[in-house]
Each structure stands twice: as structure tokens, then as C-alpha cells.
Amino acid sequence: MKIKLVLSTFALFFAILIPGFTQVGEEEENWDMYDDLALVDDAKVKRYAKPTIVGMSPTRFLSLSYDRQLPYIMKLSATRFPASGNSGWGVEEEAPVSSTGDVTFTGGLRFNSNIPVISKASLVWQTGLNYLRTGYSITAPAGQTKLPVFANALNERGLNNLSWANTVFVPVSEQNFLIFQGSLDLSGDYDWSLQPLQTIRWSLAAIYGKRVSETKRWGVGLARTYRVGNLNYVPVILYDVTSPNRKWGTEILFPARAHGRYNFSKNSLLLFGYELEGQSYRMDALSKGNNSYEIRRGELRPRLELQKQLSGPLWFNIQAGYRIDYSFDVDELPEGREFFRGFFGEQPFGMRNTLHDALYFNIGISFVTL
Amino acid sequence: MKKIIVVCAFLFACTYAMAQDANAIVGVWEPGNGKARVKIDNIDGKFYGRIVWLKEPNDPKTGKPKTDVNNSDASMKNVPLRGYRMLKDFQYKGKGVWEDGTIYDPESGNTYTSVITMKDANTLDIRGYVGVKTFGRSDTWRKLKVN
């Protein structure tokens, strides 16, 4: 009797369980039955624009690269101090070359991170710390007995850039979106003791854009930037497009960078175009009192870049191009306070320097998402 | 003997409750972009999702039903998107979470590792990622009434 009771109990529970584990087969569907379905929760559904279009190069979450320029010649003016010495090189003044350096090494490691803090359809916020090292090896050419303090400081300490960057993507509708990019940069010839925090520089860009389709988006905006060394305010144009066969495309955030793209496959692509690179670097050896003596370093880098998947999210990239000097002039900032010269300002320079153009390459690995 | 029955009953009740929780995901769902509807089924204890409706079912250029043209596998390019199994191999891990599955994005042709979390009875949070979950992106799917 007891055994029967146990068995019937088992049978009862199995009978209840089986419907719960019902397997659904692959029978032919009547597709029409899915045409007129309503949401269970009839709250208004808001649709959002995606933060990318198809075919674009992968987003890099973490990347480590080595950047190196081939030898070139550096021409330096005499050092003047517009703020502390009340003398500088006028904007229109021709500053004669005071010394020359043969630069046999310019380069170093670069680390970038871009970690998603929030990543959902209604908001994407990515943040990251970046470090960019530029070491120098400069020698005096034959006939010149020694290097100036400026070149010696570059030799001995090199230049460092530490930055904290944030990007926020805010879709406002299924097609329209806003992008805000901001960063705080500490740049100079510092070591572990860093440098006065009043020399932190901030950059910001705001873009309004429209994602026209899965293969095209555009945007316009404004940026406060140090891309050419000096502080500047420039209009921004975003234009990303992928061809119908998904082989060709553009990735443009003008004027910071503009690339054409050729996708060999899902696992490899070639970018061709340019990037503007720059920051304002404090030179400790020449900064008097609280003033900040800063190299306004700006470079134009036309280049080719091959990106290729190694395994899973691990990608490799190699870049080769030409480093064209836009600015290596120097300003003396009273109390370290930034000023805006723009294209028409007349604030005098501390130095007027020229770098001969040079070939460069960059090789790196990245952890990406598609 | 009564104890055995009570224990068995308890175990079966737990198992049944677990099965009911697991099947909470079964049904027809609409992704955040509203461009498709996906029917999720339980097949042999794993969960799969098929595209059962497309906002734009035909390719505007050819007028023919859309196929998986963006798949990097050439043999899949002619497979119709309606009926396509875009969610695969999800297993219920308890507490409203289904893991160990993949999600395929027909628009990009990419497949991502995925985790599904039930936010409430009518809302799913679907996170796709490559490599590390932290570096993924989430989408909200809403349940549809099936007559």
C-alpha cells in the first residue's frame, strides 16, 4: 500500500513537471500570427539610435602600443621669457635658429583604456586613463659644442602625458544622438612626483548627430582642444559611412582625424588618412616660479594603419606614416594659467622651434569589441 | 515513510518551481530597436530564439525576403532571416538569469557571447559581449501578447 502511495506521488509530480519541460519542435510556423502582437506592458516604448554603424573599425577598450619616429633635425630659437622676463618672440617675428639638434630617437610606449561604465541602449558612458610617453635622444651636430637647456631637458626627462578621458553617447531618438567627449590632461617632463596640478588642461567636444541608416551617420559640433598644441576652439564634423558591399567606408571626426577604410574581412581592415596629435607640455627646467614654460606640441600624421584580429577580442595594429610638425613652439604661462591665442592672437612666444618632418611607425595590440 | 514522501514532494516542488522560472523566458519578445520579434523556446532544457517577424521582411532592392547576407559564412548568406535562430544554447542558472548562450546580430553579422537577465515578467535585459562581460552592451526586450 505504501509503495503504491509513493509511486502515485511520483507519478503525480512527473505529470505536473512534464508540461513545464515541454520541448518545442521546429514545426512550420504560421508567420502571419506574429503580425499584430501588442506589448504585454503597454507603456510607451522609446527607441534609441545605436552608437555605431556597421563595418566600422573595432572599439578599443584597452590598447598598448609602441610609437617611434625616425631621425630628423630639430631647430631651436633662443629661449625668451615673455611673462617672467618681459621679452618674447612676436607672432609675426622671424626668430633666428639659435641651436640645432640631431634627433636620433623620438618615441615610447602608449597605453589607452576606454572602459564602459554604462552601456545600454539609452546611454553609453566610457571612461579611461591614458599614458603617452615620448622619450628623446638628441645630439649636437658637428660644429656645435653643446645643446641648450631645452634640448638637454628633453634628452634627460622626455615628455609624458597622463589623461583621464570620458565619452558619453546620449541617443535622443531612434536617429538623433548627442556625443560629449571630455578629458583632463597632465602633460610635461615630470617624473613620479608629477607637476603642479594647475597645469592640468581640459578639452571638451559636443556633437549633435544623426544616424541616417545602419551604414551612415553624420554630426556637427564644437570642440575646445589642444590637438595642435595651443588651446583652440574649432568646429567638428563627424561623418561615418560604409558602402553597400561593406568593403569601403569613412571614419571622420574632422579636424582631429579623418580616415578612409577598406575592410578585407570581418577580421582585418586598412585605414588611410591622418590624425592630429598634440598637447601642451610643461618644461620644469625652464619654468620660473609659478609660471609654466610649455611646449605647444602639435603634429599632423598622415598614415596607413592595418588592423587584424589575433584571437577573439585581441587585435593587432601596425601604423606607418609621416610626422609633420605643426607646432613645437613654447609659451610662458603666467601662474600656469592658460591663455587663448587662436589663429589671430598676438601673445609673444617663448621659443619658435621647427622639427623637420619624419617617418614614423606605431605597433600595438588591443582588446576590442566589434 | 511519510518523511520520504515529504522529502520527495519538497524536491519535486523545488524542481517544478525551477522549471517554471526557467520557462518564464519562453514567449515572443521585441528587441529595443523594434525591427524584429523573436520567439524564445525551450528545446531539451536549453533556450533558443528565432526571428518570427521583421518590420521590413523584404529586401528593398530585390523585393525578395531578407536573407542573412551579412554572415561571414558564405553558405549562410541565402538563409532567410525569418525563422533564423539568433539566440542559441542559453541555460537557466537561477534567479532570473540565463547564461552560456550566444546572440547573433544579423545587421552586423557578428555573434556575441550573451547573458539574459529577467528584469520583470515582461522585460529582459540582453547583454552581448566579446571576451569580458564588462565590455559588452545591453538591450532591453519587451514581451508581446500572443493570442
Strand order of the largest sheet of chain B: 1-2-3-4-5-6-7-8
Query: How many helices of chain A does DSSP assign?
Result: 2
**Order of SSEs of chain A:** HEEEEEHEEEEEEEEEEEE
Instruction: Report the C-alpha radius of gyration of chain A, rounded.
Output: 28 Å
Largest sheet geometry of chain B? 8 strands, antiparallel, barrel
Note down, in words, how this protein is organized.
The complex is a heterodimer of chains A (370) and B (147). By secondary structure, chain A is mainly β. Chain A contains 2 helices and 17 strands. The radius of gyration of chain A is 28 Å and the shape is elongated. The termini of chain A are far apart. The radius of gyration of chain B is 18 Å and the shape is elongated. By secondary structure, chain B is mainly β. In chain B, strand 7 and strand 8 form a beta hairpin. In chain B, 14% of the residues lie in helices and 43% in strands. Chain B has 1 helix and 8 strands. Chain B has an 8-stranded antiparallel beta barrel. The longest helix of chain B has 21 residues, at 2-22. The N and C termini of chain B lie far apart (46 Å). At the A-B interface, helix 1, strand 4 and strand 17 of A face helix 1, strand 2 and strand 8 of B.
